[in-house]
Amino acid sequence: MRLAVGPGGSVCFVRDSGAVGCFTSSGKITSLKGNAKEIAIGADGTMYVFGGDGRGGDGTVWRRENNRWVKVPGRKGVRIAVGGDGNPWIVD
What we know:
Blueprint lengths: L1 E4 L5 E4 L4 E5 L5 E7 L2 E4 L5 E4 L9 E6 L2 E9 L2 E4 L5 E4 L1
Antiparallel strand pairs: 1-2, 2-3, 3-4, 5-6, 6-7, 7-8, 9-10
């Protein structure tokens, strides 16, 4: 399992199965559509994953916008972190 902590202590995760979700403030799990291998959240709340298109993780980077995954053009990697400004740092 991969964990990412966002602003205000919000916690999101990618399970070994690839399922993506977040814990609510009451401790319940909210599932996010899609499938991933890595996850990161910036200080501004921007969430990124590899493989958020629901087809598994091929290293393609996806950003969460308006409750959907948006492909980040031309970006692939094996590890990800997000800076305080919301920009991803990707290890390829």
